[in-house]
Amino acid sequence: MAIIFAILLFSILIFVHELGHFLAAKASKVQVNEFAIFMGPAIWKKQIGETLYSIRCIPIGGYCAMEGEDSDTDNPRSFQKAAWWKRLIILVAGSGMNFITGILLMCIVFMPVQQIALPVISKFASYSTVDGADGLQVGDKILEVDGEKIYVQSDFSTILTLNPGDYHDIVVERDGKKVTLDNFYLERHPVQLEDGSTREMLGMSFEIAKADFGTKIQYAWYQTIDTARIVRLSLQMLVSGQVGLQDMGGPVMIVDQMTQAADASETWVDAMMNLLYYGAFLAINLAIMNLLPIPALDGGRVVGLLLTTAIETITRKKINPKYEGYIHAAGMILLLLLMAVILFKDVFTIVTR
User: Is 18 a catalytic residue?
Assistant: First the structure.
């Protein structure tokens, strides 16, 4: 069921993304020749007005084919003839729809929640050594850790995990004032758990608050921001070399993780909520990744649009869109090669584990 749900989820996210382009194009009076879900030969199609609507047989991808998108044409309603700001809206509309979808899914996931942990310290364990006059205190609201804002309690442990080490820069709100603890030593202590295992812990507890409707919506928004930040931090780690290709995962690995999360859930309701959370994470991830300035992605097309608009404004000469099309075609080939490598790695990892 998790695998079926994952396939449906990917299909919905692709549909929503292309729907964003489609609606923006229609609103901008740009001619849409075809709106397709999936790739390959069509298994269903219907012509309505100027647009062909189709469902294709390979359950990967989809597209919104606009007139004159990658070539020059005399059609006054082509993509290239539209004002640059209209083209910009059309290009970012797909990611915008994915981001909105992610927010809505987050709201659905956290609506049943009755209690929420706040980033406010409620007490310290007897073994804790992080409290004191020069340290953390009961009632402190943690605002930042190592320059990253703390929105919800789970952010605290997440940022500490991403920034290994015992010394951290912490900003708290205490009695209505900001207090900064620079290079603060967060000493962990081995604690034996009920199952007999040992875990390194700080000995801090956080406040638990009853969640009303407004709090749930706010919490869902904070989780959305956190997801976007995780994507940003992951990209930073990739660029800096902290992680490599072996740490990247594709659709196969995502489906595998979703299946494991569903199998580990106590009830079918918990399993569904875990899968919806993955859906929200993927929607937000797709929204951000697709806006990266990489050829073949919408972000690359946005950069190309801004550059060509600037050049044409200065030189007063029209640039043939086919040249930009060549760049995006080359980027697509490289992107497909990367996807193939990641796919092989994911399958190999699952088979050999």
Answer: yes
- The encoded tokens of residue 158 equal 């997440």
Residues with Cβ < 8 Å from 22, sequence gap 6 or more? 32, 35, 64
Residues of the chain with pLDDT under 50: none
**According to DSSP H, which parts of 135-267 are helical?**
153-162, 213-240, 251-263
- Tell me how far CA of residue 256 lies from CA of 245, 273, 347, 350, in angstroms: 18, 16, 10, 8
The one catalytic residue among 18, 67, 69, 324? 18
CA distance 349 to 316: 54
Largest CA distance in the chain: 77
- pLDDT at res. 231: 87
The whole-model pTM stands at: 0.85
* Residue entry with tokens 């597209």: 63
Q: Which of 306, 287, 321, 264 lies closest to 106 in space, CA to CA?
A: 287
The confidence score (pLDDT) of residue 237 equals: 80
